[in-house]
Write a structure and sequence with these properties.
Layout (H helix, E strand, L loop, with lengths): L5 H45 L7 H12 L8 H14 L24 H4 L12 H6 L2 H10 L3 H13 L4 H9 L13 H4 L3 H10 L3 E3 L18 H10 L1 H8 L3 E12 L2 E11 L4 E7 L6 H17 L6 E9 L4 H8 L6 E7 L3 H6 L3 H9 L5
Parallel strand pairs: 1-6, 4-5, 5-6
Antiparallel strand pairs: 2-3, 3-4
Helix pairs in contact: 1-3, 6-7, 6-8, 11-12
Length: 379
Amino acid sequence: MKQIDTKYNEAVQQIKSAILQCQLEAAKAVNRQMLALYYGIGKFVSDNTRKDVWGTGAIEAISEQLRRELPGLRGFGVSNIKNMRQFYELWKDVLNRQPLAGDLQGVDNEEILPTHALLMLNRQPMADDLDVHDFFSISFSHHCEIMSKTSTVEERVFYIHQAATLHWDKYTLRNNLKSDLFHHQSQMPNNFAATMPSARHAAKAIAMFKDDYLLDFINVEELGERDPQDIDERVIENSIVSNVKNFILTFGKDFTFIGNQVHIDKFGHDHYVDLLFFNRELQSLVVFELKKGEFKPAYLGQLAAYIRMLNDAERKPHENPTIGIVLCCDADKTYVEYLLQDYNQPMGVATYQVMPEKLRKVLPPEDEMKKLLNGDKNK
C-alpha cells in the first residue's frame, strides 16, 4: 500500500476527527429526540390510564395496533410503553419545565403528546445535582435499568451521572445497580484527594471503588471451609483468579487482569503482589492485597512498599501513579482514614464478604427477592 504524504495524513486526521465528532453530536441529538418522544408518550399514556379514561387492556391493544400499522416497529411493546409511562411519572416533578405557549402552536393542549416539555428543557431541574447534559447522554435502556432498580431521585441522579461520565454500557450499569454502588459510594477510606494528579482524577478513582464487596462467586463449601472467617488469603486469591471475569465485573469493565503473585525483585529481596490489574479509565496499575482478618496498620506499610516498587519497575511513562487497595474482612473507617494521612501514595481500604453456598441455595432468585422487597413497579 502506497505511503500517504505527511501533510495529507494530517489532513485526513483532521477530517476524520470532524466526521467522528459530527457523528457523535448527531447520535446525541437523536437520543435527545427519542427521550423526548418517550417522555411525551409516557405522559399521554399516564393521563389516560391513571384517570381511567381508557379501559382494561388498552396498552396491550395500542401496542398491537402500532405493530400492525408500522411493520418492523421496535421498542413499543407493552412493557416498554409501561416504561415510558414510568419515565414520565418519575421525572415529571423533577424536570421543572412546562412547555411554552409557542411550543404548542395550533394544537389542543389536551391532545398533544408533549415531547417539547422535555426537549425544551433549558434550565436546571429541581434536583440540584441533575445535570441536563448527563440526562440526555444516556439511552432510554439505561434510564429503564436505573428506574427499575432505584427508589429515590438521588439514586437515579447518581447513576445517570456515573453512566454518562464513565461511559458505562448497559451491562456495567446493571452490575453496579446490583451491587448497590450508590449506598457504597465514596465511603471507602482513601487518600485519593491528597495523592492523585488532579481533583478530577481523584473523583474518578473514588467513584471506581466501593467500601464493601460481595464476592458471591466464591463457594465456601467447595473450598472445604466450614466458616468464612477461617478462609485463608491464598484460598480467596486462587478463587478470584479462577473467577477473574466475575471479579472484574464486580469492580467494573475497565479493569484488565495482569496477574497474581506478581514477582518483584528489589535489591535481592523477593516480593509477591497478590493481585495486579490495570484500569484503562484511570490509566493506572491497581494492586490488591488480600487479608483474611481485620485491618492492621502494617498492611498500609506493606502496600506502600509494593506501590513504590511497581511505580519503579512496571509503570509506563504515560501512566498515572499506581493505586493500592487493601481488601480485608473488617475495618474501622475512621481509624483507617487517620492512618492514611501519613502516606503519599494513593491507597484505600475496602472490605469483602463471601456467601456460603448453603445460604445461596435457600435464597429465592434475585428477581423474586427484589419483587418481594420493592414490589412490582410495572403494575
